[in-house]
Amino acid sequence: MIEKLHKDEKGRKILVNSKTNTGYLIQDKDEKKYRLFSNRYILSIILFVLFANFVKNIFVSCVIVALFLIALEYTYRSKFLPSLTTFKNMKAIKKVSHIDLIVEQGNKNKCLYLSILYLILGILIIVNGIISKVDLNIMIANTIISIGSIYFAYINFIAFTKIK
Asked: How far apart are alpha carbons 9 and 122 in whole angstroms?
C-alpha cells in the first residue's frame, strides 16, 4: 500500500492510499502516532543496528526487530488506520513534505536541538563501531544509520531556518 500525506482544499492533512484512493484524515491529536508509524521501517533499522552492536548475535537481533516491526505494522493497519476518518475516491491536491510538517509545528528550539542531537548520533554511532571493532556488515549498517541521522539533522536544520 503506497500512502502519501497530502492537503485537501480545506487545508486538512490527508493520508492517501493511492491504490484504493482512500483518504485518512490526520487530525492534530493523531499526528504524533502518524509520525511514529510513518517511521516504523527506519526505527526497525535503527533498532537492528543497536541490537547488533550490543547483543553480538545477528539472529537474535533479527528476531527481535522482526517482532517489533510486525507489532508496529499490525497496530498501524488494524488499530490506527481504522480509527481515522476515511474518505472514499480521494483525489490529492497538494503533497505535504516532512519539512512542512515540522515548520507547521513552529517549535524553533526543538528543531535546533533535534538537528544537533541527530548530528551527534550520526557521529557517535560510527565512533562506537570503530571502538567496538564490530564486524564489517555491522559497520556498514552503522554507516547507513549515520547517513540517515545526518540527513534528519539536515531536515531539522532546514525547518529551523524556515520557522519564523
From this structure: 39
Cα(144)–Cα(52) distance, integer angstroms: 14
Q: In whole angstroms, how far apart are CA 49 and each of 21, 53, 131, 154? A: 36, 6, 15, 21
Which burial class, exposed, middle or buried, applies to 3 when counting CB atoms under 10 A from its CB (0-12, 13-18, 19+)? middle
C-alpha cell at 35: 509520525
For residues 36 and 43, what is the distance between their CA atoms, to the nearest angstrom?
9
Task: Return the closest-CA partner of residue 92 out of 26, 139, 147, 161.
Answer: 26
| Apex 161 CA angle, 155 and 162, nearest 5 | 90
Per-residue pLDDT of the chain (164 residues; tens, 9 = 90+): 556 677 777 777 787 777 777 888 888 888 888 888 888 888 888 788 778 777 777 788 889 889 999 999 899 889 998 898 888 876 656 566 777 777 777 778 888 888 999 999 999 989 988 998 888 888 888 898 899 899 989 988 988 888 87
C-alpha cell at 29: 491529536
DSSP string, 100-115: HHHHHHT-HHHHHHHH
In the chain, which ranges are continuous DSSP H helix?
Answer: 31-38, 40-55, 58-75, 81-83, 98-105, 108-132, 136-162
